[in-house]
Design goal:
It is built from no helices and 24 strands. By secondary structure, the chain is mainly β.
């Protein structure tokens, strides 16, 4: 990829900006990060190279539920999965419409998205203070799936959005929203799993960009309560290396701390179930041990698209240090960490 001919720093964006210029390349003014979504992702041109997705995950002390609507130009990927933490019961269903048929993903974070086919329907309906997730499948591992979830955006709640510039023609906008209270219910067959405010939290991974064909990344995230305080992390590595920007951030009682340093993921590729060490490189702000309890392996091999992900679910222990605070001890906060390799 061609290198950027401009200095890069982690400037904080304070006003709305468009991601792309008229030729479909990266708008230099969009490079940076923000505490609320400010970027219009006006992707154009670059046939078969555009990547768009909205990924939601909801966790409670008892379960994890995730639903994604994505479109990589030549293929759509709509998938939902559910994990019962205590029993380790795991169910996943995927739909892959050719050329992303029915997977129309808009330019703004707070816009509604939906997908419907005879086997699955999913909708993300955005309003000023909440997003409603409705997911239904008549055959979800042989069971009826009916999820009706309300995700709430508290007043002044901060999120983390950043543009990662590999080059003028390869770039990614990601908006990560942690620690959002969730309510509602998830029904599987005859079992209803209620989502109680204060115990259920949601995370959004919103992505829009023009990616290089070969990519690798690590990602770690959790949202929950520790010592009565609401805390969360979004940490990444691999895909941001060498760009001068990171997607690393902490959320503490609704306030985001942006980490302008890399994070190292130390894990055993021969046995992903062994504990992972996740540490910040230049400071002690991230000192975490992640202990997996379940391994989700997802592979795709469709002509020019190959993908292999080991997404581990488990518990984080250690400490994080938000801006203006002493280190905060974390004990058994449930979340995930993953190792992903793709040619897409």
């Amino acid at each position: 990829m061609p290198s950027l001919n401009r200095p890069i720093d982690e400037k904080e964006l304070l006003s709305p900006v468009r991601l792309c210029n008229e030729n479909g390349g990266l708008n230099p003014d969009a490079i940076g990060w923000s505490r609320i979504p400010l970027t219009t992702c006006n992707l154009s041109r670059h046939p078969l190279r555009k990547k768009r997705w909205n990924y939601w995950a909801i966790t409670t002390p008892d379960l994890l539920f995730s639903i994604t609507i994505s479109n990589v130009d030549y293929l759509g990927m709509v998938f939902a999965y559910f994990l019962d933490i205590k029993s380790k019961k795991f169910i996943e269903k995927t739909r892959s419409p050719l050329f992303g048929n029915g997977c129309n993903l808009p330019e703004e974070v707070f816009e509604s998205v939906s997908y419907t086919d005879p086997n699955m329907s999913a909708s993300f309906t955005s309003k000023p203070d909440k997003t409603s997730l409705c997911v239904r499948s008549l055959d979800f591992g042989g069971l009826l799936l009916d999820a009706d979830i309300q995700i709430h955006y508290p007043a002044n709640h901060q999120t983390m959005s950043v543009v990662i510039p590999w080059s003028d023609t390869n770039f990614q906008y990601t908006s990560k929203h942690n620690c959002l209270p969730a309510t509602g219910s998830i029904t599987l067959g005859d079992t209803v799993y209620p989502l109680s405010k204060g115990k259920a939290f949601a995370c959004l991974d919103y992505g829009r960009g023009i990616w290089p064909y070969k990519s690798q990344w690590n990602w770690a995230s959790f949202s929950g309560k520790s010592g009565g305080q609401v805390v969360g992390i979004n940490l990444g590595a691999g895909w941001t290396d060498g760009t001068g920007l990171t997607e690393n951030s902490l959320t503490y009682n609704g306030v985001v701390t942006k980490l302008s340093e890399d994070v190292v993921f130390d894990f055993d590729t021969a046995d992903y179930m062994k504990p992972w060490l996740i540490n910040s490189c230049k400071s002690d702000r991230i000192r975490l041990t992640f202990t997996p309890i379940y391994e989700r392996i997802a592979t795709t091999n469709v002509v020019i698209l190959t993908s292999s992900v080991h997404q581990m679910f488990g518990y984080f222990n250690g400490s994080i240090t938000p801006e203006g605070h002493r280190p905060i001890r974390l004990e058994n906060l449930f979340g995930w960490a993953e190792d992903h390799h793709a040619r897409w």
